[in-house]
Specification:
single chain; alpha+beta; 3 helices; about 15% strand
């Protein structure tokens, strides 16, 4: 497992992932960071915990409303959600 250093909401985190999944983890981190930025720019949410929860809800909403029969496979989504869950859990533990 490779240790990947990331920064979200001004905090540094170390996330373990298989080396072959590092590119996917980076994509997940970037996606989550963009969602967090969207929530923060809305100005309606105050607090780190609420910001992360709202970003997670937005991502979940996108996932549930996506046509699963498209070119993106459900397995890829499961991996991405697993990675995002790990990141959110680590953020909430800090």
């Amino acid at each position: 497992m490779k240790q990947v250093e990331i920064k979200l909401l001004g905090r540094d985190f170390t996330v373990a992932c298989p080396e072959e999944e590092e590119a996917n983890l980076q994509k997940s981190i970037n996606y989550l960071a963009n969602k967090i930025d969207e929530v923060q720019k809305s100005g309606n949410i105050i607090g780190v915990d609420k910001t992360i929860i709202m970003a997670a809800l937005n991502i979940t909403h996108e996932f549930l409303n996506h046509d699963v029969t498209s070119s993106v496979h459900i397995v890829d989504y499961k991996k991405k959600i697993s990675n995002l869950t790990s990141i959110v859990n680590q953020a909430l533990e800090s």
